[in-house]
């Protein structure tokens, strides 16, 4: 069960402790008395608690249902303003990467919030603003490729003005200051997009309507593509389940007082995506447990009773949730006294030192099992998969290029979305493997540093291919130029498969695809380094 939960949470990219709550639900029952007659009341308590937590967490949605989309979209326009200022400077690559990341996060957030049978006028406006942001970014890339000089300062000011209008309610408008200086005709498309965005912000919401449709990625395809030996999500799920099963067998085989504490500790430290982060979580959990026991001793000295215990439990839980996303060590400080408080009150064994010793022992054993298991099984799993994942990504990019260049546009639209979704999944797997490889012990740091420019270029090529069809409907390219690009893609993929350095084939800057051609040349140079 824990493997399945970890796999699904990983495929859907749901943040948080993920499968540990499933583990907690199953293992907590082992510390309870066996009483079938209490099953209904226990089920009701858990269900009502879940309902209360859901209602409490949804308060923000009732007040402002589109706040996540607004927040990510504002981040996009802020990144676009910074990118416009970085064009022609040494910081352009970092600014470009931040903008691509912001655009992808915005797309994911909007897709998550989209409901085909129920979407508001305001949400549709956010969708249009997101599409225009992608067009604006592509146009700035075009200007960067053609001129490679700093853009007028007024451009970033215009984008920042648009940033302030994203969350305007119906009836409010923004007014862009006119450009005073005479501008080059190359900037006309840029300004046209800017004024289109202004019009979208200012137009009454009822004129936008409900007609906007979004193509959401298929859950079935995501699961199928992730169910692969080269998928880091799949590998992590198998590793998680196998090591956790071993820790559970050890915990219940040797009759520990609180065996589920061992399994929970093992699961908690394995939430780190790499051996290095697992090691850090082991240290954090151990240190946090020691400090937490000291806090527990102070609490038990006060001898709380009845309703006071409930209040203390609530406060400790609140502090845990406050810190767990920021600092796991601080969260462990509040998890420990909470666990000891529950253990003592549920068993009526009033022996703090006994439970403290049990807690330290179980935490140490569970953490060590998780650390050793992760080191043995996963120390080199990500880096060994990088070449194959890169080959898959490059070949999927070539397939997208062929599909977008197809003349039978009406008959291939759905297939185009299917192939682009495969490319995005391959990119996600590749980036996840690369980030995981950075935290492996030992790792080939020099190789990973050399690979970073290639990672950067591959992501940028994927972005251009993904949004090229949005900006232009399709990619217009001659058969000769298409054949030349496909040859380069296959040459790179074959060389990587055979573990050979890529021999660069200079691609001329084609009028139809200047950005992609330039990025392919950069990618070849990055892959040719021995």
Would you summarize the structure shown here?
This protein folds into 3 domains: 65-207, no CATH class; 241-378, no CATH class; 382-527, no CATH class. It is built from 21 helices and no strands.
SSE topology:
Elements: H1 2-11, H2 20-28, H3 39-57, H4 59-63, H5 67-86, H6 92-113, H7 121-146, H8 153-164, H9 188-202, H10 219-226, H11 232-253, H12 259-269, H13 275-301, H14 307-323, H15 328-347, H16 352-378, H17 381-404, H18 409-438, H19 445-472, H20 479-497, H21 514-527
Overview of the molecule:
By secondary structure, the chain is mostly helical. The chain folds into three domains: 65-207, no CATH class; 241-378, no CATH class; 382-527, no CATH class. It is built from 21 helices and no strands. The radius of gyration is 27 Å and the shape is globular.
| Total individual domains | 3
| DSSP strand count | 0
| Major sheet characteristics | none
Query: How big a fraction of the residues is strand?
Result: under 5%
Overall radius of gyration: 27 Å
- Low-confidence runs of at least 5 consecutive residues: 408-412
The secondary structure category is: mainly alpha
Query: Could you tell me the mean pLDDT?
Result: 81
Tally of alpha and pi helices: 21
| Topology as a string of helices (H) and strands (E) | HHHHHHHHHHHHHHHHHHHHH
Separation of the first and last Cα atoms? 44 Å
Global shape = globular
Helix proportion of residues, in percent?
A: over 70%
List keywords for this structure.
530 residues, mainly alpha, 21 helices, 73% helix, globular
